[in-house]
Amino acid sequence: MTEMPTGPRTDHKDLATVTYVHGAGPATDEEYTPPIPRPLGGRTRATDRAAVVESARRVLEGTVTPAPAEVEVTEVDLDAFDDRPLIPAWAKTPEGWAMYSGVVYRSRLRAYRRWVRRQRTDRGHLAQFRRGARRVQDWVVGFEGIQTQALAHQAHIAAKEARAAARAARYTPALMKTKKEVAVREADRTQTVAMQAVNAHKQAKKYRRKLRALRAGAAYGPPMAAISSGYITAGGLGATAGALATFAGGAFAGRQVVVEETDWSADWRSLGDGDPMTAPMLDEVFRRAKVIGSDETLHMVQMPMLDARGAWSAVIDLPPGIPAKKAMRAISEIASALGVEDAQVSMTKTKGKGARSGRLEMYVAKELPFTEGAEPGPLLALEAAANFWGRIAIGPDVRGLPISISVVERSGLIGGEPGAGKSASGNVILLAAALDPRVILWLADGKGGGDLEPFEELCEWFEGDADPEAFYEMLKAAVADMKARYGLLKKLGKRKVTEELANKYPLLRQKLLWVDELMFYTTDDEYGKKITKLLRNLVSRGRAAGIVTFCATQKPGSDVVDTSLRDLLSIRWALRCTTPEASDTILGKGAAAAGYSAKTIEPEMRGAGLLWAEGSNPVLVRADYYTDDQVELLIKRAYDLREAAGTLPEGPKTLADQLRDKGEADADVLAVLVEVFNAYDQAAKEEDANGEVDWLPGTVLIDALKAAGLDITPEKLARLVVREDAEKKKRTWEDSPSALNGYPLTAVLRAVQTKYGL
């Protein structure tokens, strides 16, 4: 700073009066004494650096007061400040340089932090390099492949036509000269066209390879050359420099973010295209499905979100005045707008607190549900006995959540087309009942195909021959058992069977009556109406008596199952059906119109069905699947449990046992006679396989009766077992020297049939 002349100067407008205040330092405890002003006229050596900085600040702010009269004032020319007139003197001090360098450091630090944050976005250098590499690769591939593919298709079609024409020309008889010539010319023409198409395809492939090779050389040659030359020149350091240069070039190529849509179908997005579910998408979907108007929108109670299975779920409120059933009826249209199958979309009304008429819970599976392999059923892991009085595990729903039902005081109907999985689905209930040793099993197989045969050894009554008459007898016995149960309940003063009563009184044990292929029984000309009447009696009255009835059929229409019986079956399970009407015959009239139709179940979803057991809405469930080996294993376990509990059913009673059950003296006599004939017959067969005994002397029978404690005379025996004249003929017996009077087996059996109907 040059020294300026002192004294006032008022004749130069470009000059300004500047006063430097020196001695501005920290205050002390002593009384403040103003510093002695020192004239400015050259470089001043600051005695206090803080005073210099403070003086400069006050000068710049224009807050310096005029100097006292006795202070010498120096006029300074601002344009004459060294060679840099715009840089004040305080900036050249150490404090000034420190302040300036701090600003630069902080600005560089902020810039570095911004760069780090940017790396996580699509404008980061790594993202730029990826875009650049993709763009370079797209440029290398080019569009020649489209033309090559089209020419390949043309060549394939031309070759196919040429082969067909050659075959026609070859097999056209030579006697048909005109047609033969036409066929040969056509074969030549198509062969020429095919050869031209094949050549064009080959040329297109060659042209594509050539262009791709040139573009690949232009795109990948420089980076490879840079890396190779760097490695040769400077080793690893040079290769690293070449790689960084390549990275910089790729990042430069991808510096621009693609904001425009490259998909030609970008005007419409769907879940089927892999797009995420959003609120605007659902608005557009419901508009296209004609559920809401073009100017209406949905209210998102729960925004669309993905679960662990990759499926989308949302809770929505329809606009005021639109009920939920309108959307549920349009499930096919909604699935079409979403770009998925009908079975992938599940919509139910919300339940519990916060439920509304127009509120829907929407669930869209990522893929068609229930097409993957079924998980092992929970009964396989069951170590103890099952509890048929509790809840029965059925299988998972579309969300993978386990579904269970209670069959206490309930009855059920399972229906679906052939091959829909009725037998496998019914196993979840049958096996649960079998594994509870307290449950009595009565099974009837109207199909006669052996699906229920593995359970036969556990059943107290089994009808596996598809015999309507035998099933009718079973139902009569079931009704009689129901009356006996109600008689005991009346004596006990109880209204219905409970688990405690069933455990205490064997007569009140739970009974499962399972009827497979009900259609075969109810459509019988002779017994159909009788069977329907008895079933209706059992279903309507047997629930409180501990009798659970389940029926399975392929077509549960009114001609198969009377509506008066079908409406009493409270649990409905509709497997895949061919028509919505068939689904309604199971779930009830109007279910398909409300959005619950088993027709939407795809054939690949075997074992899946709409289960309407508890709640106001059917649920799509797939039954747990048990293989044949697993069924045999569980039945063996059920047999062991029943054997240990002493509840194994008794085998078929012999004729003698049935007679003794009558509790009459004549029946006891006939029982002994039957046993004597059986004993002699078995002994004869042991000596000779073809031997049999159909007649015994009266003395032998009298001795056997006396040995059994029955004192009966020959006259009384003759009155009980009436013989025809031809049967009274005497016969020889073993070593007897003369013929003896006796009784044939036919006469004994005739007496049993006549007196007791056995």
From TrEMBL:
Residues 400-584 form the FtsK domain. ATP binds at residues 416-423. Keywords: ATP-binding, Nucleotide-binding. Coiled coil: none annotated. It holds the Pfam family FtsK_SpoIIIE. The keyword ATP-binding applies. The keyword Nucleotide-binding applies. Residues 24-46 are annotated as: Disordered. It comes from the Bacteria. This is FtsK/SpoIIIE domain-containing protein. The lineage of its organism: Bacteria, Bacillati, Actinomycetota, Actinomycetes, Kitasatosporales.
